[in-house]
Amino acid sequence: ICASTMDELISGMYKDKIYKKFIIDCRSTNEFKGGHIKGAKNISDKEIIDQELFSPDMTAIATKRLECRKRILLIFHCEFSAMRGPNMATYVRERDQELHSTEGLLYKEIYILDGGYAKY
């Protein structure tokens, strides 16, 4: 996903199509404190990402999107979106497949911010 599309999402341009968006900043806490994208959550630990995205509450939210025919987006990034962000996105995709292989994925749309926070 490019920076301009990210700005459009943050501004609410696609709110009629998007049920929920999660901007996940995989940088360190200090990097995040030094500046971050509006609305981003700082998560760099797999245990925490499991708690955040695969809890019963989140499963209910992700299932509700099916009823209203809207989309849930996960957008991952790190400083340059070269390692930490893409690695976490891959982990989430694999975990989702592991947990929901028979009934379908909770998170069908997983994106990486092009160029990361540095380019944004």
From TrEMBL:
GO terms for molecular function: protein tyrosine phosphatase activity. PROSITE patterns: RHODANESE_3. One of its GO terms (cellular component) is cytoplasm. Keywords: Cell cycle, Cell division, Hydrolase, Protein phosphatase. Pfam families: Rhodanese (PF00581). GO terms for biological process: cell division; G2/M transition of mitotic cell cycle; positive regulation of G2/M transition of mitotic cell cycle; positive regulation of G2/MI transition of meiotic cell cycle. Residues 23-120 form the Rhodanese domain. Its EC number is 3.1.3.48. SMART domains: RHOD. InterPro entries: MPI_Phosphatase (IPR000751), Rhodanese-like_dom (IPR001763), Rhodanese-like_dom_sf (IPR036873). Belongs to the MPI phosphatase family. This is protein-tyrosine-phosphatase. It comes from Melampsora larici-populina (strain 98AG31 / pathotype 3-4-7) (Poplar leaf rust fungus).
